[in-house]
Design a protein that fits this description.
Mean pLDDT: 90
Number of strands: 8
Radius of gyration: 19 Å
Low-confidence stretches: 252-263
Strand content: 5-15%
């Protein structure tokens, strides 16, 4: 079983934009979106916008075509493939929606690299309209976290993943990559010996910098896809080499990672 669990946010982490905004902007519905934004939660608004676009004659194929043009840094796909090839368990925790994420991943040839996608459910109904629903039905109850939006607490999801993998015999190391304020709560749930990779100068980074002592995990910032690839593969190599120094395994894939010769960036210094 994989010893390393790598958890990715999706928007502005795997892809280089917000997938909701990308679709709305590319299909010419920005003004309507901005008008309705103050009147309802974001998740509910995206479902409403899919109705409005459908009523205007936009098809699900139009949405797919836009998603297939989503900007992504050229080093992100190789980074994901390399991490998977090295035996890591890759998962997604995202406040986007399943249709958007799966459409993009399938277009990039990455869908099968992820063991789990945790996101807002969505489906195409009998009329050909995309329906989007909240991961957590906040109309029925609250998830109880003041740090997160009402439809999703990523911290709850991370705790569930942690609980599920601790049922296995070997200890797991977590690497969490994210950028937004919604990624702060799960970063707080990471334990000592884990790693968090916040995108520099994005909301998650800003929140962590306010009080790094609240984060138990080791912090490694990144700027773009090239940084993401170098640092992620460097951490995987570091974890592998540390484990192999205690428990040598001749067939361990991670031991041969070429990036291990590179110097790993220093962790974020903690101001006293």
């Amino acid at each position: 079983m994989a010893r390393i669990v790598v958890v990715f946010d999706f928007d502005k982490t795997i892809i280089d934009c917000d997938s909701d905004n990308w679709v709305i902007d590319e299909l010419g519905a920005t003004d309507m979106f901005n008008e309705l934004l103050p009147t309802m939660p974001w998740n509910s608004l995206m479902d409403r916008m899919m109705k409005e676009l459908h009523d205007q004659g936009k098809t699900i194929e139009d949405v797919e075509e836009v998603l297939q043009r989503t900007p992504i840094h050229p080093r992100v796909v190789p980074a994901i493939k390399a991490a998977h090839a090295l035996g890591c368990d890759l998962r997604i925790v995202s406040d986007a929606n399943l249709f958007f994420i799966e459409t993009i991943l399938k277009h990039l040839g990455l869908r099968d690299y992820f063991s789990e996608i945790n996101t807002n459910p969505s489906f195409v109904d009998e009329e050909g309209r995309l329906r989007i629903f909240p991961y957590h039905d906040f109309h029925k109850s609250s998830h109880g976290c003041s740090l997160c939006p009402p439809n999703m607490c990523k911290g709850v999801i991370i705790k569930r993943i942690q609980a599920s993998v601790t049922e296995e015999e070997e200890e797991k190391k977590f690497i969490y990559l994210g950028d937004g304020s919604g990624d702060y709560c799960p970063s707080l749930k990471l334990r000592d010996g884990n790693y968090v990779m916040p995108r520099k100068n994005f909301p998650l980074w800003d929140l962590i910098c306010k009080n790094p002592l609240l984060i138990k995990a080791e912090i490694h910032e990144w700027i773009d896809g090239e940084d993401l690839e170098r640092i992620l593969l460097g951490l995987i190599s570091k974890i592998s080499l540390e484990e192999n120094s205690h428990f040598f395994s001749a067939d361990c894939k991670l031991q041969t990672i070429s990036v291990s010769a590179q110097a790993l960036p220093k962790a974020l210094p903690v101001q006293q």
